[in-house]
Design a protein that fits this description.
Length: 314
């Protein structure tokens, strides 16, 4: 009894320490802003994370929530209540990632949530703190409110299998959450369809009726942001794919690709910190993409990732 009580108290201490560590992990800047972009479109956010809202005479359309712990989503709701005498009618969820939809359920008394159909299992089964969409679509849909038309577009699986773009052509604004990356890198490619991501970047770079692009992170930008990220992903993919076709091990591929990418994309934010994860997860994507001519050792990928000495070197 005594021993198990000790073990439990030790576990509680460890858990408390972890909880305290987690609580201390991120200090929120609280640099909350609302910026007018065009006649009806506004950008809001803090801590380098941004959503948008569209203000009309008949109501407001909010795009996205915010980090769960930042307090910025709750702040926005209070600001909208105080500034305007029209209710939030729609909440568009750009995609299922929690940092972009947390607290969107705070509008559920007046608004219906809108998202891509594929978002549902992610929100429900991952138990996201989010509104559950009452309106879903597959390829595209138009949303009309107070004389403003929004085109919601799904370009296939990209940064997730449910990421959508919000285009307001009459105001030449494109809200491209987690698509307009520019020279900013994702930590890895864990839920990205890389080949379709490349296709989508070109489509968005050439979309008509766009002057201003609003990314989910970073400053207001233009369509060059799609091409900048396209160049990075295409070079990384093509380089790793060639090493795989040449029969190089993951270890060899890592060191050779890392040198090239660091040199070519030295001005991309986070390249030093993230290049290794980007290479390994791109390798994993391409491992599942291609079939080599030589036979593969059973469980090769798992063994290779766990211990580089196990990588095939022929
Ligand atoms: Zn995301």
């Amino acid at each position: 009894m005594k021993r198990s009580a000790l073990a439990i108290s030790a576990l509680v201490m460890v858990f408390t320490c972890i909880t305290n560590l987690t609580a201390q992990e991120r200090v929120w800047r609280g640099d909350r802003t609302i910026e007018k972009i065009s006649e009806h479109v506004y950008r809001w956010g803090s801590d380098n994370q941004f959503g948008a809202f569209i203000l009309t005479d008949e109501g407001i359309i909010v795009v996205d929530g915010h980090y769960c712990g930042s307090g910025t989503a709750e702040w926005l709701k209070a600001e909208l209540d105080q500034r305007y005498d029209v209710p939030v009618k729609y909440v568009i969820l750009s995609h299922d990632h929690q940092d972009h939809n947390c607290h969107t359920d705070q509008y559920s008394d007046t608004a219906v949530a809108v998202a891509h159909i594929n978002i549902l299992p992610h929100l429900i089964d991952e138990n996201r703190n989010s509104a559950i969409p009452g309106i879903t679509f597959d390829d595209e849909m138009q949303l009309h409110l107070g004389g403003v038309t929004l085109n919601l577009m799904f370009l296939g699986p990209t940064h997730s299998d449910n990421l959508i773009q919000v285009h307001i052509p009459e105001e030449r604004v494109l809200i491209a959450i987690d698509s307009a990356k520019g020279k900013n890198l994702f930590p890895d490619f864990r839920d990205m369809d890389v080949n379709n991501q490349l296709k989508a970047m070109r489509t968005l770079a050439n979309l008509e009726d766009v002057d201003v692009v609003l990314p989910g992170h970073g400053p207001v930008t233009t369509q060059t942001a799609f091409l900048e990220y396209y160049e990075y992903v295409r070079t990384l993919k093509d380089t790793i794919l060639q090493h795989m076709r040449d029969g190089r091990s993951l270890q060899e591929t890592k060191s050779m690709t890392e040198a090239l990418m660091r040199e070519t994309f030295h001005d991309y934010n986070g390249i030093d910190r993230l290049i290794e994860y980007n290479i390994v997860t791109m390798w994993d994507y391409l491992y599942r993409y291609r079939e080599p001519n030589v036979s593969i050792k059973h469980f090769e990928a798992t063994e290779c990732i766990q211990d580089s000495r196990e990588c095939r070197t022929n």
